[in-house]
Amino acid sequence: MEQQARVINIMRTMTATSGIDLECCHRVYKDITKLYRGRPEMLVMKMTNGRNVQLFRGGKIQILGRHDHEVAEEMRRECIEKLRKIEKMANLQVSAISIVNMVVKFQLRSPICLRKIRKSDAHLFYEVELFPAALLTKWRPIHIALFHNGQVIVTGIKSLDQVTSIMKNLNDYLSQITLCK
């Protein structure tokens, strides 16, 4: 039916037991951090592997990217170690990593005739003048962008197991709402 799904991005989060003093961290690690005062206010810290960790004043820490779990865990350990070297955060505890969102891409075997969609409802939006893909929210919180060439981008999943289910459900749904394949 479809080709193998490819992970484009993973958002992993963890939470510190207390807030993070972004200015203090920035002063201590000024060579490897950048402080953003806009919205969202955050400190971006570069890890030794060249990838970044985002820290927020309320204690949330994010790791973005499609690297595997072992790399994310090493980044978590390094970040905690750096934070604990700051005297006021010496006893900081941080929760385990949890996946908040994954973005996955896959290709249907054939293009889909989006302009021949038979029905549009609260779960399906297709307005070519606004966006070149049909947007599906039938399986909330999962969102799907379906392009005419058969490319599919899925956001809001938390595991690759969900992708298999979505791929099957999407095919069933498409056969019901389109006049051609």
Please explain how this structure is put together.
- With 181 residues, this protein is α+β, with helices and mostly antiparallel strands.
- The protein has three helices and ten strands, in the order βαββββαβββββα.
- It has a ten-stranded antiparallel β-sheet, with helices on one face.
- The radius of gyration is 21 Å and the shape is elongated.
- The model has no long low-confidence stretch (mean pLDDT 89).
Distance between the termini: 12 Å
Write down how many β-strands occur, each being a DSSP E stretch of 2 or more residues. 10
Helix content: 10-25%
Averaged pLDDT: 89
Secondary structure topology:
Layout: E1 6-15, H1 22-28, E2 33-36, E3 42-46, E4 52-55, E5 60-64, H2 69-84, E6 98-107, E7 124-125, E8 133-136, E9 143-147, E10 151-157, H3 160-177
Antiparallel strand pairs: 1-5, 1-6, 2-3, 3-4, 4-5, 6-10, 7-8, 8-9, 9-10
Structural descriptors:
alpha+beta, 10-stranded antiparallel β-sheet, 23% helix, elongated
Short précis:
By secondary structure, this protein is an alpha+beta fold. The protein has helices spanning 22-28, 69-84, 160-177; strands at residues 6-15, 33-36, 42-46, 52-55, 60-64, 98-107, 124-125, 133-136, 143-147, 151-157.
